[in-house]
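Much of what follows relies on a compact textual record of a protein's fold. A record is reproduced here so that you can trace the correspondence yourselves:
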Amino acid sequence: MDDWSGKRWAACVAVASLLAAIGCTWPLALHFSSAIPLGTETAATIPVFDVWTLWWSADRLVHGYSRLWDAPIFHPTEGAFAFSEPMLLPGAIASPLFALHAPPALAHNFILVAALCTNGMLSCRCARALGVERLPALLAGILMVALPFLAKMQGELPVLLIGGTLATLDGAVRFGRDGRTLHAGIAGAGLVVQALTSFQLSLFSSLFAAAAGLVALAQRRFDRASVLRLGGAALVTALVVYFLSGFGRTCARRLRSREAHRRRARALAMVLRRRLHRGLPSFARAQLLGLRVGAVPGSAIATGIR
């Protein structure tokens, strides 16, 4: 195995990771277009919602991501897609399958197996960057695919999408060894990819990326060129991730503001109703119980409260 060419070795790693992914999800391969795995979920709510999220992200890609966050959920709330993990990159990858009217389960399972396979390949590459021999590195990749935690979480697709984090760690390890701008760029690109696949995991993995970056700089003895290269890559990465998350944060703030406004309106409407109810004669109370509070002049904020 050590005397294999680079292409032959890469093909071996890819095939081994793919076989491991198929084995860990068995018997999914027998029902690839008609079933989705639940993992340890007791209901299919989350897996089915992941299928719908992939479809919505793919559909918005075709429309230039127009009204991406205004998904047709929680009507009439606008920007409700900010409540969920958008999975923009997996949706873009699955978009050709949806465009060809493939079964939704097929698109979901393709992303699932591809994610597990990618995790194995990048784990093997990271192990090689740490100086591990080829065979142990290949076993490390297979073990990453077969992690019991990942098998448990097969019903929650965003949790399995850790390839971007593995690429970041691989880039940081290689940068600590040679200080090349290419590897600093790979480390930064890995975090961007992680944000596009699972933004919640990108926030968590940024802690490990920062630690790996400090270790890499320590290996380079914090020389000026290395600090500038890795710091520049980190700055560009932070700006890109901030840009990607900016609209989502705006929608989240808008939703929180509207929800707080509605709670205050409901509370105010209840207080007004109670006070009016107590001050009215008994013969008029029955009429008030059927009155729409929003119909009272000056109480437009309470419209819809009965």
About this structure: Residues 1-161 form one domain. Confidence is low (pLDDT under 50) at residues 280-306. Residues 224-279 form the longest helix (56 residues). The chain is about 70% helix and 0% strand.
